[in-house]
Amino acid sequence: MPPGQGTTADSDVLVVGAGPAGLTTALQAHAHGATVRVVDRRANRARPSRAMMLHARALEGLRPLGVTDELLNRADTTPEARIHLGRHVVEARLGHADLPDTAFPHLTLVRQADVEDVLCLALQARGIHVDWGVEFHGFEREPALASTQSLVRAELHPAGGLGRNLAEHHVSRFLAGCDGQSSTVRGLTGAQWRGGPYGVEAVMADLELDGSLDEGLLHVAVGAAGLVFLFALGEGATWRMLATRPAAPAPGARFGQLGPPVSAEEVARLVGESGLGGSGLGAAVSEVRWSAQIPLQHRIASTFGASPVFLAGDSAHAHSPAGGQGMNNGILDALNLGWKLGFASSAGTPLPELLDSYGQERRLAARRVLALTHVIFFGEASPHPVARLVRSALPVFAPVLPLLLRQRWLTSKGIRLLAQPFVNYRGSAISRDRMPGAGGWPRPGERLPDGPASVGGRVARLHDLTAVPGIHLLFERDAAPGTLGAGPAFPAGPGSPLVHVHRLTSHPGRGVVAVRPDGYVGYRCGEADPGELGSWLRLVGAAD
Ligand SMILES: Cc1cc2nc3c(=O)[nH]c(=O)nc-3n(C[C@H](O)[C@H](O)[C@H](O)COP(=O)(O)OP(=O)(O)OC[C@H]3O[C@@H](n4cnc5c(N)ncnc54)[C@H](O)[C@@H]3O)c2cc1C
User: Fold this and answer.
1) Nearest residue by C-alpha to atom 6 in ligand 1
2) Is the beta carbon of 256 within 6 A of some atom in ligand 1?
3) CA distance 182 to 255
4) Would you state the pLDDT for residue 2?
5) Over the stretch 487-496, which tens digit does the pLDDT of each residue have?
6) Is the peptide bond before 421 cis (omega within 30 degrees of 0)?
7) Predicted confidence band at 441 (pLDDT cuts at 50, 70, 90)?
8) Can you give the pTM of this predicted structure?
9) Using CA positions, which residue lies closest to atom 37 of ligand 1?
10) Which residues contact 186 (CB under 8 A, 6 or more apart)?
């Protein structure tokens, strides 16, 4: 191309990686106006699951994309756990928590393979098919025709080193690197990968057990060396085991990825040493159908990217499996990034504050989640003498644990903690508060909790109202009716499929609350003002 001539984009967003983060980024960006292409170096979608849990916040964020019903169909939403402490067995019910501010008041056990399948099917239903067997190798920026923003020219190859002469170039306005812990995109952005490896690694196995272990339940065995989880979610076998052991680096094993198998004897040793064999249930491994060792690390990228190249999911942060946060956190990144890329793709002007807010918001959130998983993992799996001592002492408390676990508030608090209630975007450049000190609504940057509301005489839940893609403007009962008619033009405003207006007859007052597509409040005011509201909508690309 001759210098200065510029070019046009093949798609608005190129997503590299079709794991949970990439698939969600694609769905969310498409739902908010972008054209999308997704590539993945794998030959097809099939791979054993790593994640087994989805938390309420991720389900809430996915709901407007129309995938939660199918996810819940494939999930166990009333899980029961048996915690094995030496000879004691303690029951815990993890469905029906006391959490009135969410539509998903339960722990949700679901295989990562099902999550990916549901997301893939949703993309297909929108005419987007993942390009499997396509590997991303690099990118360069180039000027765009009729725009001051640069485009991204990505170099794509058939995967596996085949057909290097078949390289293809794809030009997009934005590039989303959702390519996992060994991210090629991250390497090319120059972001540092801060943190380090864990001294223990995960072992997963699908297996059959002899003995009288209750089927269909989650079993957690607390041994001095670490916790062993048995999920009734095996793929091709009854049980999926997740355990840890001192790291034993193997050739070809990559952090966070399913590595080489471990021996059947080693799997049997891990189950045996957890105490399950001697718990009176006589649980002993009779068959191992599949296994993998997985090196673990705790890391965070020094930046989550800057327009036009962004990182999301494991390419931006790497967790231990403790608390089941990695996939959830990647989905939350994607829900945050996707709508911003969608709006930025359709806006006539660059939206620097909106695009910069992705990294500001999600990097801080990831640091907090990383800290949480670090602490839980220390308790679950650390070989440190203090952690071992605490685990060895737990059976002493077995008689009082049932009393504690029967307290619904305690399990509810635990389930809520896993849904990351500590994440907020209050300090974000796109959080605007014109009602400081006023109560009743969350502050901008905080999640909108679910709750009852009436709209035009109809009783609804707030999260039912916001369960379609776009920005939701919640007008209090007496807010000036002309607020949206006067002031700026709203090309994406009332009448547009991406800005929805709800007048809440149940909520007296004259204010307005704007809810972002990822479920966080972006703006609130005590007295509806068309100028201010218009300026916030322009800031996020929903108005010209
Ligand atoms: C033992 C274990 C248990 C876990 N349990 C849970 C849990 O219960 N809950 C939870 O939330 N999380 C859990 N996790 C974490 C979760 O599995 C990951 O966080 C999640 O898979 C990350 O999703 P992702 O889309 O960011 O990356 P990935 O799933 O790693 O997907 C990245 C994709 O990018 C593709 N790719 C890579 N490079 C390229 C390239 N150059 N070109 C094209 N494609 C490329 C890969 O093929 C891959 O498909 C667990 C992890 C482990 C190890």
Assistant:
1) 51
2) yes
3) 7
4) 43
5) 333 444 444 6
6) no
7) very high
8) 0.95
9) 179
10) 177, 179, 193, 301, 311, 315, 316
